[in-house]
């Protein structure tokens, strides 16, 4: 669809992400919070997107994407995450620097450019934050993962993703050397505040807050 603005595209992507995370239709308030705008502005945009057959809106039940709206949102996510890989792997940006740049690059329309970018990067399955990258057909690669907060004493895990992309959080993880691939062992859990003590392979021990452990995605290490 050629007659769609960047702002409209951003709304479609926001609706997709909210629905993906909640497993339900996106509410007006949730969209407003994600887009940092008023509920009234969201209502106006939803009407516009509905007229273009990109969303379905049910009063008091929320907003969902049509097949075409889903296609556009998935393409945006694909471009955004491919550009993040390119910026980190090829231009040596850090993972806390790339989101805003990729937000601009994701609106480039050239399908050929995206195709060649994918080939150049050797068809990556995940972006620098551990989020899955849809392929050219819109298919995602999913893996078994869970928040670190759900790990048990004695578990040995590998960090495979983050649920918070805020630069401050990513910089904090860098200081602790808790990037993707970090190997942890759960040493202790404090029920009072939900914090946990972990051992980082080759880096010593750290106590992580409940907030940090909820936003780190991990996989259990395979036993030798």
TrEMBL record:
It is found in: Cytoplasm. It comes from the Bacteria. InterPro entries: DtxR_MntR_Metal-Reg, Fe-transptr_FeoA-like, Fe_dep_repressor, Fe_dep_repressor_sf, FeoA_core_dom, HTH_DTXR, Iron_dep_repressor, WH-like_DNA-bd_sf. Residues 1-66 form the HTH dtxR-type domain. SMART domains: FeoA, HTH_DTXR. Gene3D superfamilies: 2.30.30.90, Winged helix-like DNA-binding domain superfamily/Winged helix DNA-binding domain (1.10.10.10). GO terms for molecular function: DNA binding; DNA-binding transcription factor activity; protein dimerization activity; transition metal ion binding. Pfam families: Fe_dep_repr_C, Fe_dep_repress, FeoA. Keywords: Activator, Cytoplasm, DNA-binding, Manganese, Repressor, Transcription, Transcription regulation. One of its GO terms (cellular component) is cytoplasm. Belongs to the DtxR/MntR family. In the presence of manganese, represses expression of mntH and mntS. Up-regulates expression of mntP. Homodimer. This is Transcriptional regulator MntR. It comes from Haliscomenobacter hydrossis (strain ATCC 27775 / DSM 1100 / LMG 10767 / O).
């Amino acid at each position: 669809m050629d007659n769609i603005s960047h702002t409209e595209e951003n709304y479609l992507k926001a609706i997709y992400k909210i629905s993906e995370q909640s497993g339900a239709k996106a509410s007006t308030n949730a969209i407003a919070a994600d887009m940092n705008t008023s509920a009234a502005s969201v209502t106006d945009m939803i009407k516009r997107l509905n007229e273009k057959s990109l969303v379905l809106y049910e009063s008091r039940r929320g907003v969902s994407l049509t097949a075409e709206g889903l296609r556009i949102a998935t393409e945006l996510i694909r471009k955004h995450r491919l550009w993040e890989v390119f910026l980190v792997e090829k231009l040596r940006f850090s993972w806390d620097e790339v989101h805003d740049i990729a937000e601009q690059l994701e609106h480039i329309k050239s399908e050929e450019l995206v195709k060649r970018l994918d080939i150049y990067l050797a068809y990556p399955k995940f972006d620098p934050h551990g989020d899955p990258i849809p392929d050219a057909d819109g298919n995602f690669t999913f893996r078994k993962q869970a928040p670190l907060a759900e790990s048990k004493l004695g578990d040995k895990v590998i960090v495979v993703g983050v649920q918070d992309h805020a630069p401050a959080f990513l910089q904090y993880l860098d200081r602790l050397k808790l990037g993707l691939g970090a190997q942890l062992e759960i040493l202790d859990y404090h029920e009072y505040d939900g914090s946990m003590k972990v051992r980082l392979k080759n880096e010593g021990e750290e106590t992580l807050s409940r907030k940090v452990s909820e936003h780190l995605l991990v996989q259990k290490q395979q036993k030798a």
